[in-house]
Design goal:
This is Putative periplasmic protein. By secondary structure, the chain is an alpha/beta fold. It has three domains: 57 residues, no CATH class; 153 residues, Response regulator (Rossmann fold), CATH 3.40.50.2300; 162 residues, 3-Layer(aba) Sandwich (Rossmann fold). 40% of the residues lie in helices and 16% in strands. The strands form four sheets. The protein has a seven-stranded mixed beta sheet with strand order 9-6-10-11-12-15-16, sandwiched between helices. The protein has a five-stranded parallel beta sheet with strand order 2-1-3-4-5, sandwiched between helices. Helix 2 runs antiparallel to helix 3. The chain is globular and about 70 Å long.
């Protein structure tokens, strides 16, 4: 009887045997890229696990050893669960990111994401690697450049400060390097290997000052960009020219005598402008130039309304082109505002793909110029057409400038009064 039951069981199992055959098709593998330029120690990794940021943990933990057996076990389990594979290195397209992460803050991450997203959407094999440096000294930069060359990278995206860019110029590394954060007008170089992508604040200021009336009232903060813009705009408006030999501004004799400039330096903690605005008849009919960060600009505009200052318009460069402006200000406060904008070309696929990764190339000009740069390098390497038809003159990207206004719920094109009259007729 036992033999019959055993025989029956074997027969029953044979009916279902096909369900347990091993397939020759390999299971799909998961690949995780480490896009964070910041180092992560074991305490940092434990924090990732604690907050269930598993993929952030794996991105940092895949290629390292641990003192903690707990982290070692966690890594092995997750590698098994997600069937992680090793990224295949390709020589088709190699891009290096040179990142002084302590100097550029969040842009160490967002510029890397911008480059990664662009390459991902082009459906081309690529290798993207970040080289982080602690500071922008020549010695630190030279070590990173040596490593970049050693690993066979010849195209580099480098979101540096002006100091870092100038040190690279001095080192003359014989690599093709693109600076999304630097305008060539701020550097002295004729190198054919160095490319510059930052927007032109001087050109934007010139476009805005065509809409200005006297007096021009400049509010600026104590940042380097605030001080630089306020001085530049004052001298452009008063039609002064720069003597290169003496570095002194000289008054042009043809300048209109009635033009006046009033400047207010606004400290970071200042929240009340009563002293500057209340019953200040000098501001009547003025054009207000805001060389201040977004929140500070919103405060200034609201207090111009509060103290009933009858101004002609409010002007600003790219620094206040941000959708947050529409939510932190009242329409009444911003209705006379004109902004110079150089983010004029949009690729919807890239914009939306970046948005999915919580990265902004629609309003953030550094991420946008980074995308322009990788697009240019991609075209140089692959000979494929560029996605963005931004002209490049003497290795500097030349962006169109449009004047726009923050309307009720979006930014709209600005039309000078003369053009509005023509449109109505």
């Amino acid at each position: 009887m036992t033999r019959k039951i055993f025989s029956f069981l074997l027969f029953s199992l044979s009916l279902f045997g096909a369900s347990f055959l091993t397939s020759n098709i390999p299971l799909p593998k998961t690949y995780i890229l480490d896009l964070e330029p910041y180092p992560c120690n074991e305490k940092c990794l434990q924090n990732y696990i604690k907050h269930e940021r598993i993929f952030s943990f794996l991105a940092k933990a895949t290629k390292r050893s641990f003192n903690s057996s707990e982290l070692q076990d966690a890594r092995n389990i997750y590698i098994s669960v997600f069937n992680l594979g090793s990224m295949v290195i390709t020589k088709d397209l190699k891009i290096a990111m040179l990142l002084p992460y302590k100097n550029i803050g969040k842009y160490a991450t967002t510029t890397t994401q911008s480059v990664f997203t662009y390459l991902l959407t082009r459906n081309n094999n690529f290798e993207l690697k970040s080289f982080s440096i602690d500071n922008e000294s020549k010695e630190e930069i030279q070590k990173a450049l040596d490593e970049i060359k050693k690993e066979g990278f010849y195209y580099v995206i480098a979101p540096m400060t002006l100091t870092g860019a100038q040190n690279i110029i001095a080192l003359d590394p014989q690599l093709r390097i693109y600076f999304p954060t630097i305008n060539k007008n701020d550097c002295n170089t004729s190198s054919e290997d160095l490319y510059f992508g930052a927007i032109d604040y001087k050109a934007q200021s010139k476009a805005l000052l065509k809409e200005a009336t006297s007096p021009l009232v400049i509010f600026y903060d104590n940042s380097s960009i605030g001080r630089k813009l306020s001085t530049l705009q004052e001298n452009l408006y008063l039609n002064k020219t720069l003597d290169i030999d003496t570095m002194l501004f000289e008054q042009n004799e043809s300048a209109q005598e009635e033009k006046r400039v009033i400047k207010y330096a606004i400290a970071s903690r200042t929240t009340n402008l009563e002293r500057e605005l209340k019953k200040n008849s000098k501001l009547e009919g003025a054009s207000i130039m805001l060389d201040t960060p977004l929140v500070k600009s919103g405060m200034i505009m609201s207090q111009l309304t509060l103290y009933d200052i009858n101004i002609t318009n409010t002007l600003s460069t790219q620094i206040n082109y941000d959708p947050l402006l529409l939510s932190i200000t009242q329409y009444e406060d911003r209705k006379k505002m004109i902004i110079a904008n150089s983010i004029t070309k949009e690729n919807k696929v890239l914009t939306q793909t970046n948005a999915l990764l919580e990265n902004d190339i629609k309003y953030d000009w550094i991420n946008y110029t980074t995308t322009i740069g990788i697009d240019y390098f991609f075209s140089l390497i692959t000979k494929q057409p560029r996605e963005y038809d931004i002209p490049i003159v003497e290795n500097q990207m030349i962006y169109p400038i449009e004047l726009i206004q923050p309307s009720y719920a979006r930014f709209v094109k600005y039309y000078p009064i003369s053009e509005e009259s023509e449109l109505l007729h």
